[in-house]
Amino acid sequence: MTEYGRGQGSEPWHPDDPLYGDGGWGGQQAAQQAQQSYGGQQQYPQQPQQQYGDWGTGEQHGYGDQSYPQYDQYGQQYAPQQPQHQQHPHQHQAPQQHQQSQYDQNGWPTGSYPQDPYAGGPQDPYAQQPAPYGGEQSDYYGTPEAYPPPEPPGRRRPEPEREPEPQTDWDPGPDQGEHAFFAGDDEDGRDGGRDDRRGRGERRGGGDRRGGGKEKKRRSGVACLVVVAVFGGGLAGVSYFGYQFYQDRFGSAPDFAGSGNGEQVTVTIPKGSGGYAIGQVLKKMGVVKSVDAFVAAQAANPDGKTIQDGVYTLQKEMSAASAVELMLSPKSRNNLIIAEGKRNAAVYEMIDARLEVKKGTTAKVAETKWKTLGLPDWAVNHPDVKDPLEGFLFPSSYAVAKGQTPEDVLRQMVARATEKYESLGFETKSKSLGLEGPWELVTVASLVQAEGKTHDDFRKMSEVIYNRLKPTNTETNQKLQFDSSFNYLKGQSKIDISESEINSNTDPYNTYTNKGLPPGPIGNPGDDAIKAALNPTSDGWIYFVATDGMDKTEFARNIEEHQKLVDKFNASRGN
Asked: Sorted alphabetically, which keywords does the UniProt record give (predicted)?
């Protein structure tokens, strides 16, 4: 089948076919030619499928009413046959009833063709060019001057190339026109289309390429300002976040220089605070400039991780390294430190002094409010106990400063002791040691702390206590006979106590006259004494004597060994 879908016996075209038009391809003449060529007996010869000319052989045919030169198979230009009558350049040919179709050497008609559905409309300036056929007036596009020497057919374009627009950097100025980016939309509201590809001058009918005048330039200036503002703001944002990213990843953390500005400040570090939490407190108080700087300085110091909770006296605007160094020094510590074995009566006085309250205030609170201070259930309701809080003001360092209340300080200490005892499993381990419960285990630990002279003595002293509490003890008949419990009863610390004084006192805390443990702890045991109470030796120790009267304690398994130790003690004292 040939192009247009026409074979033998195909149905003839109708004049109302949309391929017929009244302009662009010959108007009514094209319709009549089509009727004569296809509606009658005359048919196109069979040809290879081609559409609007064969570019492969160099043939070209008109686009709209405009014609282009034709070339033979060797690329030589030749003139098509022209009808012998004249037609006005701006009008279509009048219909002719008996016009004969003309053919070129390839068998194609040289008359008008049906309208191209893609051709320009009547308002297209290229669609109104003079028809090349049917007039004696010379056609400019049929002359050699209209085209340069022929190029290879595949490189030719059906319409002339547009004139390149002048290149400008920003604002081209009044003499060069405006760049399309700043020129705004077309006059009809479109941003592009067919006319845009032909240049601004052609789109406006060959008018001034500057177009728009002052109003257009004013709009272009606003557009430039908007672009500059957006671009500048974006650049500033990118620069800022880029700098922050660099500082976070690679830059040094903000830090002060020097050892402070001389203004002292009291800083309280809560229990369990790590480097980051400490840094937050210091930054809030104005000591360091940034948390990251403190964390880095703490990591750089070999002892940095040993910083503990408590109260510190520091200065404002210190370098992070200086702050770490000072916090590691005892000079900065402003904590209330409770020593191992300290009795509650002494602790109450220390709290009064630190809080700057009347002497006896804390002792009165302990006596009247002890049930509200957080003691565990197993530590209450024991008979004959002189101070229910004894043994629960755990030896440690506490952040105590003026402005706090005695209740707050006592509650903090009780919580620390309770946490320690529960973490070591006092409730379960006390049974395995032959005790009635954790309360008695705390009492044992307080006795170990009071009677042991050094930490090396603690485990042996713990064994002495457990051996004397055994029902099978025939050496002391389950009596502990500790001076420390009698001294607690008296609120004193003596070494030389007469036998008459001891034997005449029947108070439950007097372990010379009463079997078993005293009613409760006699002081606040520290870590080593507590561990010793949980893990005594098993060497059979049942006696001990401070042979030098001070720091040296020696142990014995029976009464004979014990007597030798007593003689040694008497000799050291000149008795």
From this structure: Cell membrane, Cell wall biogenesis/degradation, Lyase, Membrane, Transmembrane, Transmembrane helix
